[in-house]
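Progress note, sequence design subtask.
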């Protein structure tokens, strides 16, 4: 009889309730839901503090009427895998993702004026605000990248539909967090320079005490010199997203936008595996 270590990938978020299981792959966006009690019991054991997301199983379990198809489905979507225990007698180490955010979901759902609430703000470290979904670039991973790291994004399917953050929501967030808040703000698009309320946004950002990170693709710089100048009015780090192959002409042209002074600049080089390209 063979034995295997079964595990979920660390990028898979597991939400287990008494009558349902949701698995969400943060890379592909694939969601799987189960309600079969045998599967729920198996996953409960798998994610228990004692097992930390890895359990040993016998190969006979792969023929189980419920667990066999479950494990095959997990492997099919690259959300988990089996390792022959002969390759690793020691249980493999897997880091579990454990959100520590507190929030009052019931309150949010039923409150006449929904608010993220004070308890939440006490543990909030960073806030990522997507101000628009308009961008004329054509990055392969647009719409996916933000699931793995802070990045501009917009869903390709939604490209035809222009969406923008209502500036009054920004006011609401600022009011709720308070002007003394130490929360770090990350402003992302689309192309944030195409945000129609850009000037108003800068005025709002002047209220913030903590540094603001502003994300922009280097190909979106040229032609926006005036708006880049306005960024100097606030405490901003501009994170320039650089994708490859580099468009040398526009790279040089884009960097010329900073000749008259620049916000603090950081470069974010985005490399993709050949398989994704
Ligand atoms: S620059 Fe950003 S928003 Fe624009 S296509 Fe690329 S990933 Fe998407």
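Output:
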């Amino acid at each position: 009889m063979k034995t295997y270590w079964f595990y979920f990938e660390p990028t898979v978020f597991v939400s287990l309730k008494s009558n349902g299981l949701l698995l969400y792959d943060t890379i592909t966006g694939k969601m799987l839901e189960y309600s079969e009690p045998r599967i729920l019991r198996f996953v409960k054991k798998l994610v228990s503090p004692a097992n930390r997301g890895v359990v040993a199983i016998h190969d006979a379990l792969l023929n189980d009427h419920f667990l066999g198809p479950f494990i095959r489905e997990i492997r099919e979507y690259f959300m988990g895998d089996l390792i022959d225990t002969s390759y690793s007698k020691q249980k493999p180490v897997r880091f579990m993702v454990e959100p520590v955010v507190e929030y009052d979901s019931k309150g949010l759902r039923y409150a006449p004026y929904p608010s993220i609430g004070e308890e939440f703000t006490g543990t909030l470290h960073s806030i990522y605000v997507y101000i628009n979904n308009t961008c004329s670039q054509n990055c392969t991973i647009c719409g996916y990248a933000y699931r793995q790291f802070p990045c501009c994004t917009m869903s390709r399917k939604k490209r035809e539909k222009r969406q923008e953050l209502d500036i009054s929501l920004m006011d609401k967030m600022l009011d709720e967090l308070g002007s003394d808040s130490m929360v770090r703000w990350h402003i992302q698009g689309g192309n944030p320079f195409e945000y129609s309320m850009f000037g108003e946004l800068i005025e709002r950002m002047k209220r913030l005490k903590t540094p603001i990170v502003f994300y922009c693709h280097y190909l979106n710089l040229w032609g926006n010199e005036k708006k880049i100048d306005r960024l100097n009015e606030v405490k901003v780090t501009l994170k320039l997203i650089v994708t490859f192959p580099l468009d040398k002409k526009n790279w040089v042209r884009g960097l010329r936008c900073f000749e008259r002074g620049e916000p603090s600049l950081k470069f974010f080089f985005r490399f993709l595996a050949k398989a994704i390209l």
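The longest helix spans residues 167-177. Work on this subtask will continue into the next period as scheduled.
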